[in-house]
Amino acid sequence: MSKNNNDIAIVGSGITGLSAGFRLKKCGYKVTVFEKNSMPGGAVRSVQQGDYLTEYGPNTILLKDRVIADLFDELGLTAKIKEANPEASKRYIVKNGKLTALPGSMMGAIKTPLFSLSGKLRVLIEPFITRSSDPDQTVADFVERRLGREVLDYAINPFVAGIFANSPDSLSLRHAFPVMHDMEEEYGSLIAGALLGAQKRRSEGRIERKLISFDEGLQCVPERLASELEIRHNSRVTSIERRGDGWYVECSGKDSGPYGQLIMNVPLYLMSEIRLPFQRQIEAINSEVYYPPLSVIHIAVKKDMVEHDLDGFGFLVPEKENRNILGALFSSTLFEGRVPLDQHLLTVFVGGGRQPELAELKSEQLFDLVLLELKELIGLKGVPTFKDHVFWPKSIPAYHVGYDDIEQQILEIEQSSKGLHIAGNFRYGISVPDCIRNGLNYAELIMTESQ
Questions:
Q1: Facing residues of 61 across strands?
Q2: What's the number of domains the chain is made of?
Q3: Within a 13 Å sphere around the CA of 195, how many CA atoms are in the beta-carbon half?
Q4: Is pLDDT larger for residue 280 or for residue 110?
Q5: Which of 200, 233, 249 marks a domain boundary?
Q6: Is 114 helix (H, G, I), strand (E, B) or coil?
Q7: β-pairing, 98-101 with 91-95?
Q8: SS3 assignment, position 136
Q9: Which residues lie below 8 Å from residue 16, measured CB to CB, with a gap of 6+?
Q10: Do residues 120 and 261 share a domain?
Q11: Domain containing 256: what range?
């Protein structure tokens, strides 16, 4: 075993790399993290501006796995967890220009005006639909085949926009929603999978689902992880090189190393800017993965300026509605303490893969566009008390049909580069829990390889 085998370098302080580094440090490894910015966490960023607490990246965590809950406990964050307001269980979909609540019960599903009688009856035959022979179907093809066009247009289309800021026609089911794919493969039906798979999910470490944030927002998670690690902030990595039996990291013309293992926790489009032994392969992969632009608009208003009760999680906009926003979160309904008590805070999403050109508008143009949409959809009137805009030129990677090839190319780079691990939300899931779980898995893999 090389004497430097327990020295680990992590390039980028996104949540995946931080989770891996935290676990490795706890197990006796020497971990050094290189971060080009002055703070850790990547896209996970909570911003306090006066009385207003906003999220620039992810807004919530769906806590359903024991391993994630245990990590929060280990980090001393359990006491800081804020569970979402019970009202947040209500979700709205825009139909014919009005907010309509998604059904939350069987009776609600029967009565909902979201779907016609024929659309509801179409769902009932789902258990009798045969499996697809297509090994890599789109989300849209899968849902229309199993549940019908109406469910695709007024449930799954806006749902995909809310998660991936993209269209179900553009995403691979197996990579974007592997649970749905696995249900069909194992049970032959989504309905059967939901009913029969409950016991299996519990045996896999699932706990009672909770939608959560924290007192100070989600950024406390990467900050707490980072507090346990040696992080070299404001260190832009310019080159990675393998020499002999170790990895060397270059920042500002100075080498650091050797490291026995290296985790590259950098978005693909930024990784291609670093000199790498596998430069051409990364550039080829980067050219194939689309990160759509996305604008996030925060608007606070006095409560008496809104006709709608804002009694829920928020609303999503189906593509068929031909509107200029993807949807909005009722952020102050979700979690208390984000704004003064007499105000509402909304987080509105614009652009994505559906309308990328709108994401790139100037802030004032976006504010005008969003206020007009909110006026028509929730009866907003008057002047906001707070406005903020964050633009992500490249937001969430699209797991397109054919993504197997992307994963295979990355795997081949790793297999030909001893001690290298390529991590990020372009592999194995985009959510914060996905990234944490992936980081912990990388740590286990590294510990196995370095023995």
A1: 212
A2: 2
A3: 6
A4: 280
A5: 200
A6: coil
A7: antiparallel
A8: coil
A9: 265, 423, 424, 425, 435, 436, 438, 439, 442
A10: no
A11: 7-40+225-289+399-449
* Pair (280, 423) in one structural domain: yes
CA distance 153 to 76: 42
Q: What is the CB neighbour count within 10 angstroms for residue 285? A: 21
The verdict on residue 416 lying in a domain is yes
Cα–Cα distance, 411 to 287 (Å, whole number): 17
Task: Check residues 89 and 360 and name the one with the higher pLDDT.
Answer: 360
DSSP 13-74: -SHHHHHHHHHHHHTT-EEEEE-SSSSS-TT--EEEETTEEEESS---EEEEEHHHHHHHHH
Any domain includes 208? no
Cβ burial 213-233 (10 Å sphere, 16+ → b, else e): bbeebbbbbbbbbbeebebee
Residues 166 and 250 in one domain: no
Return the axis-axis angle of helices 432-449 and 15-26, rounded to nearest 10°.
Answer: 40
Question: Above pLDDT 90, what percent of the chain?
Answer: 88
Assign 309 to helix, strand or coil. coil
Are 110 and 196 members of one domain?
Answer: yes
Domain assignment present for residue 380? The answer is no
CATH number at residue 415: 3.50.50.60
Is residue 194 included in any domain, yes or no? yes
Which residues have CB under 8 Å from 357's CB, separation 6+? Answer: 351
Closest to 323 measured CA to CA, from 293, 292, 294, 358: 358
Above 50 in pLDDT, residue 1? no
Is the domain of 281 the same as that of 406? yes
- Count helices and strands in the chain by DSSP H and E runs: 19, 20
Residues 117 and 183 in one domain: yes
What DSSP element (H or E) covers 225? helix 220-226
Tokens linked to 341: 């008590």
- Please report how the helices 279-288 and 403-415 are oriented relative to each other, as an axis angle in degrees rounded to 10: 170
Phi-psi region of 56 (alpha: psi -120 to 50; beta: other; left: phi over 0): alpha
pLDDT exceeds cutoff 60 at 236: yes
